[in-house]
Amino acid sequence: MRLVIQRVANASVSVPAEGYEACIGKGLLVLAAFIDEDTDEDLDWCARKLAAMRIFDDADGVMNLSVKDVDGEILAVSQFTLYASTVKGNRPSYIKAAKPDVAIPLYEKFLEKIEEHAGRKPAKGIFGADMKVSLLNDGPVTIIVDSKLKF
Prior knowledge:
With 151 residues, the chain is of the alpha/beta class. It contains 2 helices and 8 strands, in the order βββαβββαββ.
């Protein structure tokens, strides 16, 4: 499982064709991708890491607070392209990314795990839709987390 976590002043995702929009204020925009080998342990580890990551400023301007500490919101958007392979040629390959029949249940369970660890339900995108994502990156602060690279 791979995450790109961005600290934001605000963020939104919309699916104009479906009239769908979700938005958050201060918090985290999380782009999430899955592979076939991802397990409940990966989902739980990533959700726990996301909720506890200290990337918000404290009173002294030091990144020492988590999204929970600042009562921030989370917007989680699926993005299979995070597993793009660019080794050969100029057209990325997405062969490693989980197909929808595997990825959708993983994404839905990840959303549940975020709520469990962050203490609030995350806003979300629509899996597989042509989504438009907007954000005001705060910092900017962008962190990549990969459950297969934990040590």
